[in-house]
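Hi, here's the filled form for the chain we discussed.

Project: internal
Contact: R.S.
Residues: 157
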Amino acid sequence: MKIRIICVGKVKERYIRQGIEDYLGRLKHYTDVEYIEVKDEKILSPFSEELIKKREAQRIEKTFLSDGIVIVLDEGGQSFSSKMLAEFLQRQQMQGTRVIQFVIGGTLGVADSILKKAFMVLSLSKMTFTHQLSRLILLEQLYRAFTILKGEPYHKD
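And the returned structure, exactly as it came back:
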């Protein structure tokens, strides 16, 4: 199974980029993983929010693989524990899912057109994180999930 992380915008903070690179390297020992950043739109006025999300959605959609499911990260989504995420990944593998594509929107979130394509909307927490930090948290949780599935000692109950 392949994991794809599709994000809007670039990470500015060096420490977050380093963390992302670290967890991408760790994940490669368990699964094929791809990290994609699409260009974000500049926020010009409050009246352009829908237009901005629409343009970003077009860029996101161009990256989608047809044989994959889409999971959108959004604070209003379904919450999983780390073990539940591991079980979800395992079920997807058993069902023959070839690609799981996680989408992290930009500052304004994602357009409805992306949400409509989603197999699931997932929340990392009831707390709000920056969209840049969310990337690192998602990668760490994916790594944790794979170590749980392999019975490795990274995850403590």
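Let me know if anything looks off before we file it.
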